[in-house]
């Protein structure tokens, strides 16, 4: 479909100006955006100026066309010149300078949506420039086109200088719109960058949460394994004294039925011993479960006083010498924790010493920047290298034989408490004597005023 609108002869620069003006007027009346109006009119003036410069005369025909379902405003510029001999070279050229011939053709091609050019020797050149119209701007009929043609004929004579000035003003207006769009695009780009940065931060936070969840899952698995082992060990060790008690009560019952009161009297201490063993085991289990409860209250603890209470609560042989470093610090912490730690370490040193007549135990303290270092050292039988790690596990004493009065939970309680505080505990022993060292957070140290 094609509808002719008007035709202009191109003979001089004034006709070029008129062709530009009609292109602007038609594109505006057909609802084309202003930027596209300027592009179309500029492309028209470029080709028309080539006609004046290289041929001398020609014509331009404006029409409405439809291609592949889209409506276009078309300008067909023709001349009867000698043609363009190097047209293929011009169209294939990538780098252009304004001084090179053919620049106007390439510039016009960039400004329109459809571009066609035909050029034959001695037959002239035909250039078809088409700019797409909005769908709402194509509602014109034959009467409308005739009215436009009449209005164009009745217009006053064109002043080329005024028209060029008008074109420049329009170009400046388009440039201002482009500047504003560039500013808007820059703001949008900055917003996109901000959103990308925020998205990256969210991704990092999500990855951190996933890592934390993975770490907690592993910790939970370890705790579950520890609980399984704890339950198994507790059930096993509780069953042993219960079976012994059951056996002793059966024997006691037989003695009483047989009237063997003297024999029954010898069985009673054995029964008491087994119940005491079970009591110690249950007490140790409760202490182990208590270690690590963060809701225990804190208060100021004078270690000098606490250690005196610990030693007083233990059964210490008269020959057993205990030396405690003077001027121990005051800590703001959970009293039950420190009491358990020192009670177990000092109590073990007393309990397992093989020569109490020459026994010596020393408690020392060394402050460092982040941690306080405490040592409990004795001159007892020592601990074999292969057992120095095992002794901190539940029910491991490092001995090849059972010790009376031991639950086997003491050092595991100590390690659990210290690790809950973020510290560490280890033992050094080479042949004779053992030195237990543990760290305690220096943040709980109360500085002297």
UniProtKB/TrEMBL annotation:
GO terms for molecular function: kinase activity. The keyword Disulfide bond does not apply. Keywords: Coiled coil, Kinase, Phosphoprotein, Transferase, Two-component regulatory system. It comes from the Bacteria. Its EC number is 2.7.13.3. InterPro entries: HATPase_C_sf (IPR036890), HATPase_dom (IPR003594), His_kinase_dom (IPR005467), HisK_dim/P_dom (IPR003661), HisK_dim/P_sf (IPR036097), Sensor_HK_Regulatory (IPR050736), Sig_transdc_His_kin-like_C (IPR004358). Residues 233-444 form the Histidine kinase domain. This is histidine kinase. It comes from Pontibacter anaerobius. The lineage of its organism: Bacteria, Pseudomonadati, Bacteroidota, Cytophagia, Cytophagales.
């Amino acid at each position: 479909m094609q509808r002719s609108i008007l035709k202009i002869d191109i003979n001089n620069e004034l006709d070029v100006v008129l062709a530009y003006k009609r292109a602007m007027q038609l594109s505006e009346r057909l609802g084309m955006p202003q930027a596209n109006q300027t592009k179309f009119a500029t492309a028209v003036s470029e080709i028309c100026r080539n006609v004046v410069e290289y041929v001398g005369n020609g014509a331009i025909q404006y029409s409405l066309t439809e291609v592949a379902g889209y409506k276009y405003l078309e300008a067909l510029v023709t001349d009867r010149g000698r043609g363009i001999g190097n047209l293929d070279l011009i169209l294939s050229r990538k780098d252009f300078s304004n001084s090179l011939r053919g620049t106007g053709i390439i510039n016009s091609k960039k400004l329109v949506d459809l571009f066609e050019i035909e050029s034959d020797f001695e037959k002239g050149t035909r250039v078809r420039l088409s700019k797409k119209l909005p769908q709402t701007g194509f509602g014109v009929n034959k009467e409308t086109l005739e009215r436009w043609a009449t209005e164009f004929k009745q217009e006053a004579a064109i002043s080329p200088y005024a028209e060029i000035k008008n074109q420049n003003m329009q170009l400046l207006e388009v440039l201002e719109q482009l500047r504003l769009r560039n500013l808007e695009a820059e703001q949008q780009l900055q917003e996109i960058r901000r959103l990308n940065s925020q998205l990256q931060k969210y991704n990092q936070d999500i990855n951190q949460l996933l890592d934390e969840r993975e770490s907690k899952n592993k910790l939970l698995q370890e705790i579950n394994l520890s609980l399984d082992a704890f339950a198994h060990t507790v059930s096993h060790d509780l069953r042993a004294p219960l079976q012994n008690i059951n056996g002793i009560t059966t024997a006691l019952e037989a003695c009483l039925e047989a009237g063997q009161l003297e024999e029954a009297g010898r069985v009673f201490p054995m029964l008491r011993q087994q119940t005491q063993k079970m009591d110690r085991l249950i007490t140790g289990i409760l202490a182990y479960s208590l270690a690590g409860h963060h809701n225990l209250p804190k208060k100021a603890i004078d270690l000098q006083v606490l250690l005196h209470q610990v030693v007083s609560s233990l059964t210490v042989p008269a020959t057993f010498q205990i030396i405690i470093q003077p001027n121990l610090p005051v800590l703001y912490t959970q009293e039950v924790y420190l009491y358990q730690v020192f009670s177990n370490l000092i109590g073990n040193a007393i309990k397992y010493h093989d020569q109490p007549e020459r026994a010596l135990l020393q408690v020392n303290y060394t402050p460092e920047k982040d941690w306080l270092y405490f040592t409990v050292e004795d001159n007892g039988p020592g601990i074999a290298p292969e057992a120095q790690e095992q002794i901190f596990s539940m029910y491991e004493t490092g001995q090849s034989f059972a010790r009376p009065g031991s639950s086997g939970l003491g050092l595991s309680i100590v390690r659990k408490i210290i690790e809950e505080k973020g510290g560490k505990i280890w033992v050094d022993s080479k042949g004779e004597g053992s030195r237990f060292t543990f760290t305690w957070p220096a943040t709980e140290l109360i500085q002297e005023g």
